[in-house]
Amino acid sequence: MNRSLLKLCGALPMAAALAFGQAQAEPTVVAPVKGYTFEGDKLVSFSALAFDKGRVLGVGDAASIAKQYPDARKLDGQGRTMLPGLIDAHGHVFRIGFRQSEVVVTETRTLAEALAKIKAYGQANPARQWIMGSGWNQVIWKLDRFPTAAELDTAIADRPVTLRRVDAHAIWANTKALQMAGITRDTPDPVGGRIERDAKGEPTGILVDKAQLLLTKVMPPYTDAERRIALDSAMRHFASLGLTGVGDAGTSADEARIYREFADAGKLTSRVYAMINDVGDDYKQLAPKGPVKGYADDRFNLSAVKLFADGALGSRGAALLEPYSDDHNNKGLLFMDDAVLRGKVRTALKAGYQVNVHAIGDAANRQILDAFEAAYKEDPNGMARRNRIEHAQVVSLQDIPRFKTLGLIASMQPTHATSDMNMAEDRVGKERIKGAYAWQTFLKQGTVIAGGSDFPVESANPFYGLHAAVTRTDHQGKPIAGWHPEEAMTLPQAFRAFTLDAAYAEHQEKSIGSLEPGKWADFIVVDQDPFTIAPGEIWKTQVLETWVAGEQVYRQKAAR
């Protein structure tokens, strides 16, 4: 990893500093700090930050900044490390909030441990008529199969129980839930979905990808009160992790309404870049008003549409060009045929929206590459939307250059690689893995990578993402040399993916993503310098303070 740092920069150009300074009533200067930011394409360090009215005046050496703003309010930076606020370009905001009141089995290591936790949750919540949860992973449990409804019945049998897999691309249901949804041996697999069945053809309790809709349509919907609680919880969580911006990859009309409500009340302490969920009912409610950009001082944007091309690798729903290496009769699931996908892309582009498509398998990635290519032939201006492929996880080597040709952003989540390394090569084999989680290959050809986590599939902690990006190891440092280390990012590359390039992927690079004059003063203070510590220690970084538009929205209790 290239960890060499550029020399301490001087003050920003005097003319620019004065232009901002003349308009300020009482600027604030934070110094001394050990700061890092991008200035254009260059990573620079600084020892002082000046801001006013929520926006950056400039960064530079402490003496120069003090001279420019002699009457400024002064905050003692205590020499601590300052960074631009970090941005997670792809997550699921309400879902991470809902998890606070549901049963989560992510940390369980065995099926028995998960069943015990589910049973305990049911006993502690006797009033819940439908038990919901998430986080199971049969690979971690070393089952070599999916869990079953019969096994879930041993934990809770008298109420319906549904738990989403860790990747949210499969649901594990008990018998009561299957009965309430009317799922029997005669229920056909929907397009883009699969009902797992036993040797006799009976449903086993696992519904993959679009088959989940058979259950979700009968599950109780969330109320507005529950949505408000979830969003408030998510905002507090993000602030504690130094996330000043998040991309919500799949927003409903109800959720968009709650976002506006929070933005109007000044309660969005992380900027939200929301993507409308598909071009169905939610889109029909929201699209007539057109894309929403810069709402409430850039706290809320709703200017993208999120589509799904396939499922996930762990549940073997990711669509592959050739069968799975560990399941020779299975190529995964494409959610729609080419004509339908292309129609959805055209619909969203024509209405002025950026189009961001979930594609994990190489067949799904090729399908959406073909769809964008066809769309641009009809409307070359569509490329200017900075359209994105979300995950771009397993891509044919011959298709990777097409990202650059089509001007697509690769919205990728580094922790997916370190979570999936226990099974990914089993799924796709030694040849296809060469185009999987291929960050450096994308970067070398000039493709922009927007960093994210896909929370709550993975932890929302961006320092986990930075660590995974540069080491490709788990938190115990395994494997020693990193998993396929040739695709690791340098730390500056990873830092840019979670700041300036994430902002670029949201058409916001002129207002956030770095601490340059005129941008919002979104910054964080952390307990260690990620550019000087050992790469294996990056994930341990703690956020001491988080500031959005020059206002402190989080302070660690032990700080100062």
Question: Would you mind describing this structure in some detail?
Answer:
- With 560 residues, the chain is α/β, with parallel strands linked by helices.
- It is 31% helix and 24% strand.
- It contains 20 helices and 23 strands.
- The strands form three sheets. Strands 1, 2, 3, 4, 5, 21, 22 and 23 form an eight-stranded mixed β-sheet that branches.
- Helix 8 packs across helix 9, helix 12 crosses helix 13 and helix 15 packs across helix 18.
What is the number of helical segments per DSSP (H or I, 4+ residues)? 20
Structural class assignment: alpha/beta
**Strand content of the residues, in percent?**
15-25%
Q: Roughly how much helix do the residues carry, as a percent range?
A: 25-40%
Q: Kindly report the name of the CATH homologous superfamily of the largest domain.
A: Metal-dependent hydrolases
Overall outline? globular
Low-confidence stretches: 1-24
**CATH architecture descriptor of the largest domain:** Alpha-Beta Barrel
Radius of gyration: 24 Å
How many strand segments? 23
| CATH topology grouping of the largest domain | TIM Barrel
Largest sheet: 8 strands, mixed
Mean pLDDT: 94
**Text of the CATH class of the largest domain:** Alpha Beta
What number of domains? 3
First-to-last CA distance: 33 Å
